[in-house]
Structure formats: C-alpha cells, structure tokens
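Handout, section B. The chain below has 594 residues.
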Amino acid sequence: MTFEIALAFAIVLGALVVFTLDLFPIDLVALAIMSLILVLGPMLGIAPEEAISGFSNPATITVLAMFILSGGIYRTGAINLLARRMIRFAGTSELKQLITVMLVVSPISVFINNTAAVALLIPSVITLAREHRSAPSKLLLPLSFFSQLAGVITLIGTSTNILGSVLSAREGYGAFGMFEFAPIGLLVFATGALYILSIGRKLLPERSVEPEITKVYQLKEYLTEVIVLPDSPLVGKSVLESKLRKQFDIDVWEIHRDGQKLAHPLAEKILRADDILFVKADTRQLGKIKEIEGLDIASEVRLGGLERKSDRRELLEVVIGSNSDLIGGTLQTTNFRHHYNCTVIAIRQRGQLIRQRLGQVPLHFGDTLLLRGTTVALAQIKREPGFIVGEEIPPEEFRTEKIPVALAIIGGVVILAALGQSILITALVGCVLMVLTGCLKMNELHQSIRLDVIFLLAGVIPLGLILERTGAAQLLANLVVQSAGYVSPLIVLGIFYLMAMLLTELISNNATVVVMVPVAVATATTLGLDPKAFILTIMFAASTSFSTPVGYQTNTMIYGPGAYKFSDFIRVGGPLNLLLAIVTPLYIYFVWGL
C-alpha cells in the first residue's frame, strides 16, 4: 500500500466517522472534506479545480433543479388538492387507509424528489388519521417507506439515482435513462408494498387514538426550564416544601444556579430567586406552570419579557425541515424568540428529551420543537417553509390556478428526458419556466433549494475521485475479488448490496454512493462483469433505508410527528431491509444481467 492510498483511506474513513457521529451539520462536514482535499491535493494528485468540481458536477446541478421543480409543484397546491381527495376516499379501514397513502405518495415520489413528497404529505396524513380516529403512527411510517420504494423507479425519484447516473457516466459506462431501470424498480416497489400491507402493518405501533392534536401532545413528556421569580413565595423554601410534585405533578430534575448545576439530592435544596429548574412535564402540566405564582417559563422571561395576561397563548409542535435556517444554530444564535415571536419551551431530538439549556442546544433537521405563542404567531409559523407541521395549510395559500401549468412543466421535463434529452437540460429549462409562468416566485425558488444536500454533494463527490486517482478503489476491489473468488457473481452483487445498505444506515445515502461506486466498478471490471449492474445495486441499496430513523431523510421527517421510537424502525423496517437485500440482487441479475 502506497502513502497516497493510505492517505486516501484515512480521509474517507475520517469522513465516514464524522458523518456517523453527527456532531456537525453535514454541509459543514462536506466543506471540511473539500478543504482537506484542496490542501492535500498535491500529494493525492488532485488539482484544485478537481477538488471543487462537485459544485459544477451535473449531479449537483440536476438535484438543485429538481428541488426547484418540486417547489413549483408545492406552491400551486397540486399535492394538497390530491391529499384532500385522499382523505375523503380512505374511509375507516386501516388497510384501505394504507393503500390510499400508497396510491397518493408513490406516483408523486416517482416524478419529484421523494423527500419533498413526504414533507408535503405529512400534514394530510395526520389529518386523515385524526378524522378517522386512528393513530398517525400507523400511517406515517408507511408514508416514508412507500416514498422510498417509489423513488427508485425513475432516474429523478431520488437524488441518489441522479448521482449514481452521473458517476456511471464519469466512469465511462454512460448515464442511465429516465425509465431504464424502471422494471427493476417496479419489482422492488411491489415486493416492499406487499410486505408493508401484510406483515409490516401488523408490526406498526399505535401510539395515540385521540382526535385532537392537543390531546396527542399531552401524551408526550418534555423537559423545560422554569425560573423562580424574585417575588416568588417559593423563595426560601426547599423543593420538598414547595410541593411542586404533590400539588402540580411536576418533577424537578435539575437546578441551575449562577451557571452551576446543584448536586443531588434536590429535595432539601433551598430555592432562591433566579434559580433555573429543569422540570419534566407533559404539555398539560406545562400549561399549569403559568398558573403557579412566582414561576415562569425561563425562555419567555429571558428572551421576551413577561407576556401580557390578555394574550391568548397556544401550543404547536413543529419539526425542523430540511431547508430550515435553524439547522446548525441554536435558539440563541438564531434569535428565535424575536424572529418568530414565539417561544420554544421544549425540544426532542431523535425521540429523546433534551436535558440541556434549551437556548444552547444545537438544532438539527428532524428535531421536534414545542412552541408557545399567540394564534397569529403560530399561524405564521405554519406558513414557514422551514417547518413541518401536522396541520394542513389553507387552500388560499396556494396558486391553484397554476396547477395545470406546473404539471405540464413537470410532464415536459419527464417526457423529454425519456426521449433521450439530457435531464440536466430539461430540468434547468423547467426551473426557468416555473418562474416565468408564475408558478414560483424568485424568493420561493431560493427557499426550495436544500443547500445542505447541494453542499453535501459538492463536498463528497471528490471523495470518489481520490479513491480512483490514488488506486485505493482498485486495491479494495482486488481484496473483494480474492475473498469472493469461489462464489457466484450473484453473491458478489449481494455483498455489495449489504455493504451499501449498512453504510447508508450510518451516513448519508449520497455519500454511500460516492464511496462505493468506484470500488464496485473496479470489482466488476476485474471479474469481467457489467459495472452498471453493480452501480444499480448500490443505488437501490442506498435509496431504500428502513431500519433507523436517520438512515434516510424521510424517516427523520416522520420520526417526531409519529411519536416513534428507534426500535419501531428496527422492528418494521429491519425485515423489509433484509427482504430487499435478498430479492433486489436477484431482480438485477435476472432483469438487467451481469
């Protein structure tokens, strides 16, 4: 092994570890990778323009264009109109509701980015569950899974497919056509759908059957900060004497005083003015805190002053969307209280209660925030594109008269691409037409673009380049060939599927494709097999991740609204992952060939 190969492995391994630990925003990690390759370029044989080539890569530009096209469809309300009809059709049967969700989300996910499709349909699916007194947890997980399964049918269903196609062209094997692998995708979709509608639906959790959203919130517990006011009658009393637990059913978990956390046990600690109490309570109990003399929610006192008693305040639970400006910041650094005119009184991250000072918690995509504010402020929150809420947006917020135009533009993009025109060209032209026809305004175009994905693609694409340029990919391929010398090509295909599937559960699906494709191509070439079959295998494995809430972004999006636990994904999605790991290589082997 040469020094260059060892250095390439070190960079890739370091990137995978940082992605897995999730300590920093993925776009920051991607920029750091790019910077490192720029600095070490002379040793890796990478020129500066190659290190930043991810920004001009056709995959990056095409994915950016697809986000804009999805934004145009969203702003016309076409999907919401379809979803409202879904609600009327679904009925009370759980199986019929699941089939209805499948029939709505699947065609959408085939032709627009499946992440955008799920974000648009979450409110409608929650409304469907409430109207028929069923649990949202019975429908939201299938919503995510169906969208992933449908996304692998066409080239534009997921950014992973677009990236895989561009990498295939870069390797010299040509890009994939719009429907070139659709027969395999349809088989994968049918297999996954049958599982969800039969075995999978029996494994789905049922977390709530309450029709009102406020009652659903009451089932969830939060940790929030409460401040002891200077004139509080609790000053000078111990926690035990305050009777917070006995009278108000509120548990004090921690006490912070002058920036320091007081040691346990807390029962005998004497309360002082300006003490910060971390209390565990559900939303019903949180409402009672405002009624306790001498106590107030710390974030409201600290960030906005005491509210007027005449103000009517309500609670709203939102999920931080993938294009939110909050990602990577904190409530303090983003000036959340003054920007949105409401207060975050609790945060859940990946289903876990946050036990830190809320203002200092780094925010991530998929975090659930419990907001408290006036009716007007919360109504504005519901219209913010950076939040996913469980309530439908009124029809007047959309340009419904532009629905035929937007659908015609999307149809034109798909048809021309299917006829052989470059998807990059058709998608970019479609973006311009979305704006010129009034389906999308310029500020909405900017909001539609998911910069985290764009920076991720730009940053990780050079990773594949250094694996190829240094010979690291060929070295790994030789090791695979030696270890797989006595098994059939189908088994080798299955090994790559399993490797990509496991890697996707730990890091980004796009990063998985970038790292795995050079190794797969080198392996296929050494074995005398079709490299595009191996690229397809990795694309399918990276685009269908069901076993964890962080393996695919649609899983992260429904995690909070569905009140899921990590184990729910393992129980429902794990068998589906294993099933597809068996059948997908078979479908590729028999339909595509090796």
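Note. The mean pLDDT is 83. Compare this with the example in section A.
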